[in-house]
């Protein structure tokens, strides 16, 4: 960077080499100078020289002939174009003589690292060379990347270190967190759901740890009945209200499976009767059992891994080969088929909800995976408020966050062999993208917004 550039950017020429932009609570762990960054699938004969940093939040590459890592305003306000968020790293490879060696946090680097490939969950590949880097610097920065990219405990995630600025005076619509009774009552009133009530039956999470303290349940149920029925459902996840269509009076309710060996085998029937009493015409609800869909969590995970392999060829030659029959290979992943299954299931729910004016109970084992996918798609189809930016944010906060989707497990935020990973939220975003392509004028947000959400919530492969 020349003197003129420094003056233009307001930098001091004596300030030393450029440093990465830090978020509050972010610290540089290690760095290596004279690192070469190669263009993905290039010939690796020429690279851009710069400094590679590893912080407790990201890996970032800064070149001396470019502006200091400024935050991008187009895609993500937290990271720049040369940043790799640690939680977005899927695998790290040490490359030698064209062969890849996968690196693990427990293995460590003993010898000299000459070439490094970072494969990300968002299908990007970053390639670095340490040909001109001091051996100890290269080893330290690689070890830091591998160590911090694969945390073994939830408390090691950067979210626990982040110390955001709470003094901002920026005025923005407040997205309800659905922790207060008032948040749920506002939604019940908006949708004219007279047969349902907000209750603190789960206060201090005494019933279910994966449900919010405040829930919306059929008005005929009292807290004692709810507390008695909860142990008969998987993870104590009792039936909870999601939506009521003001025109038909029919509602959308989410319910977990009952435990087969439960003492009260008639508890599900009692819950369905209470839901029927909440209907304006006392109609019995129809149950959509998601276990009968021709797709499982394992199928979704396998399909996503095939999609990842298709989008991340190992060489330029392989990339050109895949491009020749891209669409047939995409079909072979079955990812598009899974998206279609979800959209078709949501449409069947809408038909019962609107055309037949029937309350629909979405039933799933724990009611926290495909249930929020279908529930959100239904509300996007029938409720224009959910297609606004603020409404969509509230929808995700309510159906995914408050009602207990297991993000840490499904997205592989923590390295553990005991959790089942599955990109359920990504599947939902892809379904939204399909709707957005068909009805672009019906949404207040664009595909760029969905892409940023995708990039911030991509699961690690097994």
Automatic annotation (TrEMBL):
InterPro entries: Myotubularin, Myotubularin-like_Pase_dom, PH-like_dom_sf, Prot-tyrosine_phosphatase-like. Gene3D superfamilies: Pleckstrin-homology domain (PH domain)/Phosphotyrosine-binding domain (PTB) (2.30.29.30). It comes from the Eukaryota. GO terms for cellular component: cytoplasm; membrane. Residues 1-25 are annotated as: Disordered. Pfam families: Myotub-related (PF06602). One of its GO terms (biological process) is phosphatidylinositol dephosphorylation. Residues 1-14 have a biased composition (Acidic residues). SUPFAM superfamilies: (Phosphotyrosine protein) phosphatases II, PH domain-like. Residues 178-462 form the Myotubularin phosphatase domain. Belongs to the protein-tyrosine phosphatase family. Non-receptor class myotubularin subfamily. This is Myotubularin phosphatase domain-containing protein. The lineage of its organism: Eukaryota, Metazoa, Spiralia, Lophotrochozoa, Annelida.
């Amino acid at each position: 960077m020349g003197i003129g550039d420094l003056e233009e950017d307001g930098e001091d020429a004596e300030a030393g080499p450029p440093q990465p932009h830090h978020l509050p609570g972010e610290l540089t762990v290690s760095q290596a100078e004279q690192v070469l960054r190669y263009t993905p699938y290039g010939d690796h004969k020429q690279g851009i020289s710069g400094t590679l940093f590893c912080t407790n939040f990201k890996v970032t590459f800064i070149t001396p002939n470019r502006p200091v890592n400024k935050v991008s305003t187009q895609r993500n306000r937290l990271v720049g174009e040369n940043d790799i968020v640690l939680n977005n790293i899927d695998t790290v490879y040490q490359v030698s003589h064209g062969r890849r060696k996968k690196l693990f946090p427990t293995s460590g680097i003993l010898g000299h690292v000459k070439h490094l490939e970072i494969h990300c969950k968002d299908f990007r590949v970053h390639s670095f060379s340490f040909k001109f880097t001091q051996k100890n610097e290269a080893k330290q920065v690689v070890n830091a990347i591998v160590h911090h990219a694969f945390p073994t405990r939830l408390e090691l995630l950067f979210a626990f270190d982040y110390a955001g600025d709470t003094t901002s005076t920026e005025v923005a619509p407040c997205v309800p967190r659905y922790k207060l009774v008032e948040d749920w009552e506002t939604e019940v009133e908006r949708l004219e759901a007279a047969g349902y009530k907000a209750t603190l039956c789960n206060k201090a999470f005494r019933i279910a740890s994966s449900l919010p303290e405040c829930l919306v349940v059929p008005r005929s149920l009292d807290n004692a009945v709810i507390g008695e029925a909860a142990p008969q459902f998987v993870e104590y996840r009792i039936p909870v209200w999601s939506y009521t269509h003001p025109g038909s009076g029919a509602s959308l309710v989410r319910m977990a499976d009952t435990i087969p060996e439960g003492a009260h085998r008639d508890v599900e029937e009692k819950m369905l009767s209470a839901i029927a009493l909440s209907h304006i015409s006392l109609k019995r609800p129809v149950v959509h059992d998601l276990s009968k869909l021709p797709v499982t969590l394992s199928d979704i995970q396998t399909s996503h891994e095939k999609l990842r392999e298709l989008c991340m060829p190992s060489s330029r030659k392989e990339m050109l080969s895949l491009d020749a029959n891209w669409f047939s290979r995409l079909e072979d992943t079955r990812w598009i088929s899974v998206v279609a299954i979800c959209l078709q299931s949501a449409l069947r729910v809408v038909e019962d909800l609107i055309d037949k004016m029937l309350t629909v109970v979405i039933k799933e084992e724990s009611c926290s995976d495909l249930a929020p996918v279908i529930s959100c798609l239904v509300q996007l189809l029938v409720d224009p408020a959910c297609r606004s930016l603020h409404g969509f944010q509230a929808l995700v906060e309510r159906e995914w966050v408050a009602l207990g989707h297991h993000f840490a497990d499904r997205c592989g935020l923590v390295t553990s062999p005991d959790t089942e990973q599955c990109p359920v939220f990504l599947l939902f975003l892809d379904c939204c993208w399909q709707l957005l392509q068909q009805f672009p004028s019906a949404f207040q947000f664009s595909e760029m917004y969905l892409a940023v959400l995708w990039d911030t919530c991509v699961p690690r492969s097994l």
